[in-house]
Amino acid sequence: MNEDFTKQLYQFVGESATKITNNTESMKTFAGFLGMYQGRNHTIRNKLLIAGYNINATDVRTAEEWSQVGVSIPDPENCIWLMKKDSSASTGYTAQAAYDRSATSLGAASEPYIDPGELAERILLHRPCPVVFVQDGTLGRSKALYVEGENKIQVRAGYNNLTDVCHLMIQEYTHVAIREEEKAAWRPDESGRPFQYNRNHARYGSLSQLVTYAVCKRYGIKAPELTNLQPLDTNIEGRIAYIDRINRLADTVTKQIEGREPIQKAERRAAASAASAMPEAGRE
Question: How far apart are CA 153 and CA 122, in angstroms?
Fold first, then answer.
């Protein structure tokens, strides 16, 4: 594939990033794509290419990769062009043909679904900090709140739908993940003030909503309505970096929910007990 075509792909990435971050509906759609997409080993630039070709793509691999798992490509012309690093090319990349699952003998993937009760158990089991259910009046107008100073998540008790509870906890897990990233990057100034995470800061409002939306879509539960999303006003690299952060944080929250460390049986029983004590209405 000639280098002119690779340059066109590189330019298309920038155009896609600009289009997505200029329009709130496009930001929502792309966050949904990130949530539904299963082939998460791609760079964010290639994910932008994939979404540009097929916003409903869920798993894109090369013909060789599909062949290794016994899957065929009925129409080799129905491909998605990705960028593969190549130090010998003047652009640093070469074009590489790949195929979404929908273009293979497998056909399109089914919509993801997980029982809200099972998801609630996973969320409680692998919580990043204590989760406490509190009575009305404790949280004011909030439905859930990560309390940084006490390192705990408070959720208003009394919801009769497990999907709502899952959404609220995913939302607060997202704030925990953002806080951890911010704290890791923070450097003290001359005032010597300690690090503080202000969830109400304008820079976190759209980010937290888009990450929460992506994770909810990943598990097939009803995603929350997005409000007051702010289009970006920055250069192309800044837009790509912002999209990459949404992707990275969504993966972080998902890994937290799925768990990566062995859990003691007592903790597992406690999580199962807490989940079973939630209202039954949301399981339907």
Answer: 16
Q: Model confidence over 260-280: pLDDT tens digits?
A: 544 444 444 444 555 554 444
Alpha carbon distance 61, 105 (integer Å): 13
Range 110-124 burial, b when 16+ CB lie within 10 A, else e: eeeeeebbebbbbbb
Task: Tell me if 99 sits within 8 A of 79, measured CB to CB.
Answer: yes
What are the DSSP calls for the chain, one per residue? --HHHHHHHHHHHHHHHHHHHH-HHHHHHHHHHHHH---TTS-HHHHHHHHHH-TT---EE-HHHHHHTT---S-TTS-EEEEEE-TTSTTSEEEEEEEEGGGSTT-SPPPP---HHHHHHHHHHT-SS-EEEE-TTSSTT-SEEEETTTTEEEEES--S-HHHHHHHHHHHHHHHHHHHHHHHH----TT-PPP---TTSHHHHHHHHHHHHHHHHHHTSPPPPP-S-----S-HHHHHHHHHHHHHHHHHHHHHHH-SS---HHHHHHHHHHHHTS-SGGG-
Strand-pairing partners, residue 81, are 97
Q: Average pLDDT of 220-245?
A: 87
CA distance from start to end of the chain: 52
Q: What is the pLDDT of residues 62-95, one digit of tens each?
A: 999 999 999 999 999 999 999 998 888 877 888 9
Smallest CA-to-CA distance from 212 within 231, 196, 225 is with 225
> Per the confidence metrics, is the pTM higher than 0.90?
no
Are residues 80 and 54 in contact, defined by beta-carbon separation less than 8 angstroms?
yes
The Cα–Cα gap between 268 and 186 comes to 35
